[in-house]
User: What shape does this take?
Amino acid sequence: MKQFLKYFALAGIMLGSVTLHGQTPSHQPIEGAKTYGSGINLDSCRINILTVGYKLDMTNNQPRVYRNIKWKGKDSNSSCLSNEKFDLFLTIGNDTTAIYVYAGSSNDLVAGVGNYEWGSDPHTDTVPWNQLITKNFGTKNQLRFYSKEEAQAIWNQGFTVKNVKVVTEKGRVFILK
Assistant: This one.
């Protein structure tokens, strides 16, 4: 009986270490910020500087996308950005093929008041693999996402974020570097 308990305990330790090891991400989080500083007109909102912060990591083998924005409006007390609709895309890939991490929409963010401070509620999502990496950017209904297996392979290869694309509801594109 004692021998059985020893084997049972040893098997439990071995299985536990395999499970814990399997849950660690394959690489460190990718984080940074990209800025557009030459002025943007989003419909009626004039933005002098726009910065998007991002962080990509893993939780329980699921990709997680953090994003936040800060901006400086023409009027420092302006709140016009909170009325604008746009989507965020992180450009990744190599020099010949650009692909994109879909980082969500403005509906998920609480923007500051235009005084170049980060939003009060940075948004984070655990994203399904088949809704994470897209072959194109644009409005949400036009996106062509990679399959779960393809997205996992891209993620596990590792990548860097080259720029952030802001796509307005009307299809205007601003590139933050």
